[in-house]
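Field reference: sequence -> structure
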Amino acid sequence: MGNNKSSIAILGGSFNPVHSGHLAMARAAHDFASTDVILMPNKTTYYKETKPFVADQHRIGMLQAAIKGFPYMRISLMEIERGGITHTIDTIRAFKEEYPLRTVYFIIGGDSLEWVDRWVDADELLQKTYFLVAIRGKTDRLRSLEIIERIKSEHPDSNMSLLTTDNIPISSTDIRERIRLGESIKGLVPEGVEEYIYTNNLYKEVK
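Structure field:
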């Protein structure tokens, strides 16, 4: 797969559905680190427990459709198989145990950066994980640089870098709402994902 076997990048999320913004983040991480990118669908998280998910098999099916043509991307079912409430540190510990010599990159958006130093076991998480922060535009960059400077001052062992991605405002919530209203999602998701959604009649009643 990727060129750098001493590292691995993880992009976690609900992927409900996976969209073009997710793939832009994965591509940017690959360009930055020349490494494999693992897309890891969540089972549930402590802050999204009430969010309506389609069946796990469909989220996996959409991911499989999305990564076709990207040999450096693969899917991990670790968090789905673990089940229940999961935290990022649980996944990082598992990867560090399996790949003790690899650098583990974890891809997040600028919005998540605001809270990352308050996540469960944040001290350990920031020490073990190299965060790649996907940003869009000059304002996002300046704000993210301010937060990174603060976090590094409080956690000197932390590592963070910015990823610049296409400035495409896409959210899974908006895509689900468009489908519910019968509006087009063309260009917001990969073609294979769009076909999968309509073939399986997904999100017609999901807000």
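Note: DSSP finds nine helices and six strands in the chain.
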